[in-house]
Structure formats: C-alpha cells, structure tokens
Amino acid sequence: MRAVLMASLIAMPALLLPGSSAGTTQIIALLALLAAALTFVEYTGDYPSIVEFRDAPPYNRLRFAALFLTVLLLTLICRGETHPTAASDALNAVGMRVGGLLDFPYSPVRLMVLGANADMTAAQIDRMRTFAGLAYLVSISVTACFILLVRLLNWPVRRGAFNFWVNLPLFDPTAGGDILYRLKRDAHVNIALGFLLSFLIPAGLQIASAAIDPVSLGDAQTLIWTMSAWAFLPASLIMRGVALMRIAALIEEKRRRAYAQANLQAA
C-alpha cells in the first residue's frame, strides 16, 4: 500500500492534468515505478537503511500526507482551469484568500511570487500566489500537528519503547563526541535551516534564473512540483529537528534517572 501511494503521488499531476506529452508521461511512469520499488524494499526489510523514524509513527505518515495533500490540492486547482468543478473553484478561492493574506513584504510567499519569470502573465502570477499560499498553509498545519503530537501525546514512547538505532539508521554512533550534544546540535541546525529554507529557495531560483536558462514556472506541472518542494522541504526539516530534540530529551531524562539510581546505591 505504501508503494502504491508513493507511485500515485509521483504520477498524480500527469494523470489528472490534460496535455501531457508521451515522453513526459513515460518519464513520470518510470519515476513512479522507481519510487514504489524503493519504498517497497525499504518497508519489507527487517531493518531500515534510509528512512528515519520508520517504527515511530506517525512521523513519516504526516510528512507523506503533507506532500500528497499539497500536490493533490494544487493539481485539482490546475485541472479546474480546464474542467471546473465546485471543489476546484472552492480550493481556488481558499488559495487566493490565503495567498493574499500571506503575501506581505518580506514573507516567503512574497519572495516566491517575486521569483516569477519575466514572460509570465498576470494570471499565471496570480496562480503562483494562490499555489504558494495554499502549499504554505498545508506545511504550517502539518508541522503544528506534529509539534502538538510530541508535546501532548508523548511521541514516540506512547506505544512502547523507542529503538534509537532502528529509527535513526543514518546517525553514526562512532563519529565521536557525546551523542546528546550531537542530537541537540543536529536538531538546532535542522530547525534553523527549515526556517531559512523558505526564504533561501526563492533567492536560489532568482540567482539560478540569472545564471542559466530558467525553468518556466508557467507550466502547470513544473509549478506544482516547485511549490510542493518549496513548502515541504522546510516543514520536513523542522519536523526532523523537533523529533531529534525530543529524542535528546528522552536520553537526557534516562541518564538523569540512571545517575540518581547510581547515587542512591552508592549512598
């Protein structure tokens, strides 16, 4: 089921939007099959190799839901331009409202809109603002849900013990230094980078467009994936930072109990 959902995510814009060329469809089909195969291999193995917090739901489920929902909503709005429905009109109205509220000076949405190509029309720029506002709203909502889950529902030890090495396969225990210090450092770096990335990605797009031929954001599929990545990557980094900080707090608490018990036994 996870593999099917991952393949559906990759193929969704090409399947729902009209006008996709045969070459583009074949490439997207190949990417969808590759993503499904990697997901299947990862989750059927006894031990993870890449995916972090595999046995600590719903961390990865929230991240996938954020990306899937963002791509789905933006795709439905794009499809509504040629095949309008009540749902697409409602989503477009919500996106325009949210985009207008978040489009204030120096905001990530304003910076993303300023990165529009010079050849884009006013309607395409408005669509870009709508997509940016809706994608940013989804990312903020999912991040807030995860923080509440950690604070109120005692993630990740609510359902049992947390296996550090299974859930953090990319964390090298032999790198040296206190593991508690390294976890807190990585958590701070991820949170700071997550906040900055919303501003750095639009700046990077503008710098890249000045140096090389820019990718046209007027294309629907390109705009969908660009906006989804711009909103998802910062949210994912912030969620990872919050998760690492939570693991560090659990280790610190366990150390404190162990030290207190050792002192009592010594006394």
UniProtKB/TrEMBL annotation:
Q: Provide the transmembrane region boundaries.
A: 26-43, 64-82, 134-153, 191-212, 224-247
Output the superkingdom of the source species: Bacteria
Assigned keywords, A-Z: Membrane, Transmembrane, Transmembrane helix
Q: Which organism is it from?
A: Salipiger profundus
Species classification: Bacteria, Pseudomonadati, Pseudomonadota, Alphaproteobacteria, Rhodobacterales
Indicate what this protein is called per its UniProt record: Arginine/ornithine antiporter ArcD
